[in-house]
Amino acid sequence: MIAYINNTPHEILPGESILSFIRRNYGTKVVPTLCDSPNLEPFGSCRICVVDVALEQDGRTRAMAACHTPVTENMYLYPESENVQKLRKNIVELVLSDYPEDKRFVKSEIPTEFEYVVQSLGVDEVRYDSKGKNKVFESDTSHPYMRSDLNTCINCYRCVRACDEVQGEFVLNMMGRGFDSHIIKGMDVSFMESDCVSCGACSQTCPTDAISDIFQLNKQVPEKKTRTICTYCGVGCNLEISTVGEEITAIRSPYDAAANLGHTCLKGRYAFEFYNHPDRLRSPMIKRNGEFEEVSWDEAYDFIAESLQNIKTNHGPNAIAGISSARTPNEENYLMQKFMRAVIGTNNIDCCARVCHSPTALGMQRAFGTGAATNSIADLKYTDCIIVIGANPTDAHPVTGARIKQRMMKGVTGIVIDPRKIELARYAKYHLQLRPGTNVALLNMMLYYIISEGVEDKDFIANRTEGYEEFKKEILALNIDELESITGVKKELVRDAAIAYATANAAMEFHGLGVTEQKQGTFTVQLIADLAMITGNIGKKGAGVNPLRGQNNVQGAADMGCQPHQGAGYMNVHDPEINEKYKLFYGAEVPMDAGLKIPEMFEAAIDGKLKALWLIGEDVVQTDPNTLKVKHALQSLDLLIVQELFMTETARQATVLLPGASFLEKEGTFTNGERRVQKVQKVVPPLAGTKPDGQIIIDIMNRMGYEQPDYTAAGMLEEISQIVPFFAGIRWDELGENGKQWPVAKDGTDTQLLHEVEFKRGKGLFTFKEWEESNEILKHGKDFPYIITTNRELEHYNCGTMTRRTGNLEILKEDVLLINPDDAAREGIKEGDMVMVESPRGKVDIRAVISPDMLPGVLSSTFHFPEIMLNIITSDEHCSETMCPEYKVVSCRIRKSKGKFKNPLKRNQLTDANL
Fold it and tell me: What is the spatial distance between Cα 496 and Cα 608, in angstroms, rounded to a whole number?
């Protein structure tokens, strides 16, 4: 179909408005707008975008709003006619009549969008009476980030719509009529008093800076804008960072970013000031006589190389281990596992995927042949049903969480399986609020009803899967009443949810650490795969199994081989043929014997078998379970090398401390939860005295006699592409702004959707697993009757090392204990009381928040703050298949605190219960 712009024909694309049609062909400056924004639905309130429209060439025209009017065949559009120019100037004059007189015609060094429109239209006077304007608003500076000066608001509604349509928070609204119309927050309160989640969507879209933030108000003209990827969660948000010299001045979210569509959370947009914080480590240090001494890089390197070589010579390579970091790029993770295997000669390499999504990788590999997300987040627009299991994405993966929430609010069937009444449970049709540790029982109930109600996808099962008949027999033999009692969820509710999932045209599953961090974590993932296969919800748009990866590069760290049993590209290190392949590629002997997982490393250190550990960017003392045991393990080592940004609880235990570079100071790639490999580009140089982590590893490799060229992202990707099959076509200079989703063929073609025709393993494998009670409950449930489960809050990230050094600390200042009102009343605990929480491992004091979102007998908290050290009470229990810790089922007892103890590490002493 053809339409005409100034009598010149242009092809129409499906679904185009007049505005998008003109902008695609003539650029963004031809038709000005005020109420339009790339990530918002057309609104049509400002009418600045009017164009003359005729049905024939030079025929009678009619002025129409371009933003929400579809372009149709044989339309004749005149976007710059004399008529529309007069209309636009007239509209802007009307807007200016209700605008502060001293700001109407200013010419800022960085003009706002509104100022640009005024100037581009040549408006230099206001002919309309403005006597109705008497309102004067006080500036709102209550918030650490958000600011408002509503005197310059033009009532375009963009902020309101961003809050509604992008974030789904509904904090902003319009109050009053006529000249009294104005934006309010919540019930006409300040930003800080409102329910604002500080995502900054309103600030980014505001055309006048009536709503802004502390960084945008810094009106420095950026010398450079750099695209890079956020360092926090696994969403992989694309960021545009403005700099002046070596200082970061502001962060915005590009509207063309595939992963986040112009949106980000408060961590990605605002929590960057840690990068040059005074607490940053700025020199290598060696601990001598119990005290750290600053040393040169050469001295630190010599000490490390000599110490590692001595340990290798005297105790063998398996006396050395490494823990890589899911916070660092793929290239650095690849180098770390290469160092351990090719230089040291051990498979003792692991990463934090062990303590979060190792059950996902193994469970999905068993069922499908590959352990990564099957779909893209963009597939949400094609789904009819969303099931969220053991995850709280609006807090832990906020941008994806907001997109899921938007779909549920617009009528897509939502199913939430979680012990807590999380935010998404408010919008879901079904909330299956189960007892922690009973995921397998509940999923078996769902599978039972799908089979017994005859809503399984028989064709998919017959053509694409194996093992079904035996699986079906086991499922139908289950006692549903017993499972109802185990889970605490009514069987009728489970039945309805199961049928809703099975009968949807396309159903999309998301799961998080509430699935994996349990005794039966791997089996739960296998049952989730069963659920997808039995209903045919795999290998098509809007369906699939999609783990919500916890850290920014946890997917990539595993892809690169940072696990003891699989090398780069998930190849089996125990296979002689694979071993030969690695040996030839690395030009060195590569071990075939079994390596240690992180919990096994700690055991080996305590037993005296592990002598040295090199740890990059993980604060295991604060974040791994059973803190006192972890600390004891680290103190049992002869050599602990820690590469960090700050003096963390783990760094304090180090023998050698190396100051690494943050994501803003290095280059490489992150792989997000949807397999999207994106460029991390250096924004500012490393702080004086620090080095990029990849270069540090390479320096040690060369010190120990293995020649490795100096670090560049392009060079490392070239090497990786030759050994990791699904990276075969990835090249640094071809990744573009939005990266590529692996597997990437040699010709550069990437893959948005997995398993369309067949599974990686051929046919999908059904596996039945009966529910088993957690060992923690069996051992300690009688004496410690409560279950505490861990979670993450929106404002902070894991141990909070970075976010606690930003304005986020002003919003959330401490870990708290969520407790059911009935439990609080029974224990004599009131809101805000300090509560002593005790497990067989130790005890902590934490402030109570009474919450009806919690089930009776179930508590919840976070471990963002070292002042609490919640992991003192968590256990060594773990997934039976992967050794992923069971953070989600911890037996404890509680009482009102006597308030005697301050330092949790000094208060708690190592006992047999820890070991």
Answer: 54
Predicted local confidence at residue 54, as pLDDT? 94
β 786-790/858-861 pair status: parallel
The type of residue at 68 is H
Burial of 587 (0-12, 13-18, 19+ CB in 10 A): exposed
Q: What share of the chain is helix, strand, coil (3-state, %, to 5)?
A: 35, 20, 50
Residue 681: CB partners within 8 Å, gap ≥ 6? 226, 227, 228, 667
The pair of structure tokens assigned to 558 is 């595993």
Dihedral, CA atoms, 297, 273, 220, 692, nearest 10 degrees? Answer: 30
| Integer Cα distance of 613 and 606 in angstroms | 12
Answer for the pair 407, 387: CB distance below 8 angstroms, yes or no: no
d(CA 356, CA 513): 6
Question: pLDDT for 663-686, tens place per residue?
Answer: 999 999 999 999 999 999 999 999
d(CA 265, CA 256): 17
Rounded to whole angstroms, the Cα distance separating 501 from 495 reads 10
Q: How far is CA 685 from CA 337, 688, 690, in A?
A: 26, 9, 10
Strand blocks (E) in 55-186:
62-65, 76-78, 146-148, 172-175, 182-185
Of 452, 453, 409, 449, nearest to 427 by C-alpha is 409
- Output DSSP code: residue 709: P
Between the alpha carbon of residue 88 and those of residues 40, 80, 122, 145, 191, the distances in Å are 22, 10, 10, 34, 34
Task: Return the closest-CA partner of residue 513 out of 367, 354, 407.
Answer: 354
List, for residues 314-370, the tens digit of each pLDDT value.
999 999 999 999 999 999 999 999 999 999 999 999 998 888 899 999 999 999 999
Q: What is the DSSP letter of 381?
A: G
8 contacts: CB under 8 Å, gap ≥ 6:
none
Is 571 in contact with 581 (CB distance < 8 Å)? yes
Instruction: Please report where in the chains the tokens 């590999």 appear, as a residue.
Output: 365
When pLDDT is cut at 50, 70 and 90, the band that residue 606 belongs to is very high
Question: For the segment 231-261, what is each residue's pLDDT rounded down to a tens digit?
Answer: 999 999 999 999 999 999 999 999 999 999 9
φ, ψ (nearest 5 deg) of residue 149: -135, 90
State which H helix or E strand residue 289 sits in.
none
What are residue 74's phi and psi, to 5 degrees?
Answer: 65, 20
Task: With beta carbons less than 8 A apart as the criterion, state whether 661 and 276 touch.
Answer: no
551 φ/ψ sector (left φ>0, alpha ψ -120 to 50, else beta): beta
Pair 147, 140: CB distance under 8 Å: yes
Q: Which residues contact 553 (CB under 8 A, 6 or more apart)?
A: 234, 326, 327, 328, 329, 330, 333, 670, 671
Peptide bond connecting 743 to the previous residue in cis, omega within 30 degrees of 0? yes
Q: Rounded to whole angstroms, how far apart are CA atoms 157 and 97?
A: 18
Lowest average pLDDT, out of 120-124, 473-477, 896-900, goes to 896-900
Report the run of H or E that residue 252 belongs to, with start and end: strand 247-252
CA dihedral (394, 399, 402, 404) positive or negative: negative
